[in-house]
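::Encoded backbone::
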Amino acid sequence: FKAHPWLNGPKDSYLGFKNRCGCSLMEHSHGLHLLIILFDKYDLKIGKVEPSIILDNEKNYDKKSYLSFELGNREINAFYSTDVISNDINKSLHIETLNNIFSVRFSSDNGTTDIYIKKNKSHEIIKKFKKTRADDFISEVKLLDNLIRSNNYDKLLNNISCANAIKVATICANILDDD
């Protein structure tokens, strides 16, 4: 809750309640959203989602979530993890094929860095992007502001994918309803 210093804990806001769209999985759903965008881009269909969830003592919210995706008959493994209990913020996605690995760790180094890793059998690329808490939102706000100021509402709506939001929310709801 370092990002929300005015709260004394999860019960002080929606963050501590999965039925109010809080919790680790829903609050950090932007990483899952990125994974859905990648699945769509490469025409990967989700066959099954295997979740591993750690709930708080009252079962109000997930403190830690780990999702493994089966993607049809493709030899591709995809994983997503997030938690609100680690000292170093943990939000990550990982895609493995037979020859390549693509990985993103959001807010590593206690919220100061996003790390992108791409590697294959002979080469590894690691890119670290220093950031602040405001960096999490500033690009989105600037894009929306520019589109609204230019009255370009068609492009604005194209940048806000309701279909992807529904996919992410459905995955989260199915997982959290089972617990």
Q: What stands out?
A: The longest strand covers residues 62-70. The CA atoms of residues 1 and 7 lie 7 Å apart. Strands lie at 48-55, 62-70, 77-83, 90-96, 100-107, 113-120, 124-130.
